[in-house]
Amino acid sequence: MKWIDYENAKTVDEAIKILSQSGGKARPMAGGTDLIVQLRVKDPRVDADIVVNIKDIPELNELSYSAEKGLTIGAAVPCYKIYNDDNVINHYPALIDSASLIGGTQIQGRASLGGNLCNAAPSGDSIPNLVAHNGVATLAGPNGTREVAVEDICTGPRQTCIEKDEILVSINLPNPGEGFGANYIRFIPRNEMDIAVVGAGVSVNIASGKFTAAKVSLASVAPTPISVPDAISALVGQSVGEGPIQNAANAAKAAAKPISDMRGTIEYRKHLCEVLTRRALNTAVDRAQGGK
Length: 292
Hints:
By secondary structure, the chain is α+β, with helices and mostly antiparallel strands. The protein has three domains: 5-53, Uridine Diphospho-n-acetylenolpyruvylglucosamine Reductase, domain 2, CATH 3.30.43; 58-173, Uridine Diphospho-n-acetylenolpyruvylglucosamine Reductase, domain 3 (2-Layer Sandwich); 180-288, 2-Layer Sandwich (Enolase-like, domain 1). It contains eleven helices and 14 strands. It is globular, with a radius of gyration of 19 Å.
């Protein structure tokens, strides 16, 4: 590793000031579970002269819920706090699907969903789940704050719409209300701490036996995690049953644009998109109807 300066920001404004004055050569660090590795291997996409610790900023450590505002997850809240939080368990249990499998137990003591989003890996396990929960990211920069839908954050592999002088402050998930269910599942070659060959994050809203809203998002099958509008169209307005779910799964398979690599071929990955989307939707329906 080259010589890198370290700054410990205590406020959002302090972090933004350091980033703004760095000439694009500073990188914010929440948990560091991705950033430190990337700096060590000299990944050119994350070249930095300054690392700005943002884990001590109060707003980035907020984890709160209200029926009106929904769930707010600070960008630096570690995974273990998320899956142990009573409000998450009671109102957003599907978040545990992602928070409990990012890395191992030690990694989950540092890694955050915000960091996973900012890392923008096509295989990021939290991103399809946050999309399925209609997540909205709050960004702060020299010109104030702005809100961006989570599904619009990633613009390419390891690339986001977040400017170099901005930080992710928090992610808000609206109150899902009654009849909501979600799920994230992935396929990996090994049992733990592996990169998803395919991941599927889905959600459904059900009322009077019909799908009233839905989201389907896929990981590891395109340069960014993707949403599948045709899968949503296959579900919304239809009676809950195998037919619409299978149609949505077929739409997910059609939307996938994977590559072949050491973890799987294009054909294999597209097949997994159909299988995982169908399974995730069945679990989401079960949860929406009162199952655990």
